[in-house]
Amino acid sequence: MNYPTPAIVPQSAVRPLPRLLLLLLCFAYVVPGFVGRAPWKSLDITTYGYALALNRGETSWLTPMLFGMSPDTEGLLPYWLSAWSIQAFGGLMGAELASRLPFATLLWLALMATWYAVYYLARSPGAGPVAFAFGGEASEVDYARAMADGGLLALIACLGLAQPSHESSSYVVQLAAVAFIFFAAAAIPRRMGGALAVAALGLFMLALSGAPTFALLYGLGAAVLLALAPVDEQRRRDTRIAAIAFAVLALASCALAAYLQQWEWRLLPVSEFRNPHDFIELLVWFAWPAWPLALWSLWIWRRQIANRRFLHRHLWLPIWLGLLATANTIVTVPADRALLLGLPAFAALAAFALPTFRRAMAALIDWFTLLFFSVAALTIWVIWISVQTGVPPKPAANVARLAPGFAAEFSMLPLIFALAASVAWCLLVYWRAKRNRPEIWRSLVLPAGGTVLSWILMMTLWLPMLDYARSYSAQMAAMEKVIGPASPCIAFQDLSRAQLVAMQTHRGEQPWQLVRAEDPGAAKCRWLAISVDGHAFLRPSDERWREVTAVRRPTDRDAAIVLYRRQRP
Fold it and tell me: Is this structure's pTM higher than 0.90?
């Protein structure tokens, strides 16, 4: 038996969110975090360092090396994209910003791909609303657009998306690739040629960004679901051809990854698998508020999920992606980056919960969201005011304790953006509270708006503090005071990739000359830099070196660089 849909939606409930407002929301979410900051540790600055080396022709494109060290994360594509962007736009906007441009673009495309994925899933058989006896039910297209709006709002609202998605790392490439594949599988068979082209792009991106196993499993699973999902008779042949194409593309992408020696297993030993308590704790905050809505969706659509005759794509495609991401989170590290790939699936399932919401549940979400994000925004403002003025004194004292040496500077432009975002939040709350809204996406407007508000405030008011805490700028400036204004040769030993890139890029046009301590050229260097790992570090064996000082990162006392100076004979 093909169970009817639980979605009872009138035409009045599917008015779409205005396109301009939705695009402005995405723009306000994507741009802050990529613009106006220094490279952060450690993935962000490491990607920048390898991209610079590729751009300058200092290393091979197939086996990139940085001071003799290969990347510590799998995948070549992130470094290629960053290097190509520096070549194309570095002269226009500077190398740092140009290196982040591909990742900002990919985040934007991931949001758009998720919107279109939910749109096409909502138009698949079994996903539409119940037909009323006397008419008045939502039309197919309007219903799909409203559902897609809800899915995109759910994705933006996820708390865990903000920070990892604004890094220059392979995980942003993987997120975009997953969203592309998700869209392609949802759009078939309505968009055959374009969908298969996007699927090929996504699968090859995923395989070349460090996740070939995920690409293989996701591609083969999508192929099976396409082959078994119900479709119109006139589209059945095209769908089966697309399923075969999905499987072939998944195998081909993994074959390319293996040929380029980019297939490495990252499975943890069974004894180190993440336990259920840790996973649930991560899921609760990382995928909030999408995960409770996704669970409700699984419950309310349970009869369609359990239907053995039909594998409904609008349910099983996000379920399969969510299961893969969940398993990946348990058996690999880092767990939060692995869970990142499941957020489009959680957002899609959350969207299919919206047509079944009761008014009391929607009101509960609204009130909780209003209180949570209003308190968060007020906290950000109070801490900023305290740091700027000293009133109230306790927040400023806490910042001074956590980031010793930080000196606040006032800037008008970030303040204007922060004020504009705060006013927009107040207007959004007024719009939502002034009357009962019938739109099915209404319950996710405040969560998405609150997340964007908090992110903008952090990337404007708190950006100097975050740069001071998360970048190497303060540590490099302290090193320059010790070494002096000249551009000397510095031998190094046991430094991380991020520390080396920070030393290499800190002085701009007059960089320090860095030489490995074991190389013959190190004999000409008057300075030696050694990393401190915890409280133990390897002292140089040459007795002619005299320890000068340990230059520490202000927010990480253990991440110090010990400087030695060669004693004159």
Answer: yes
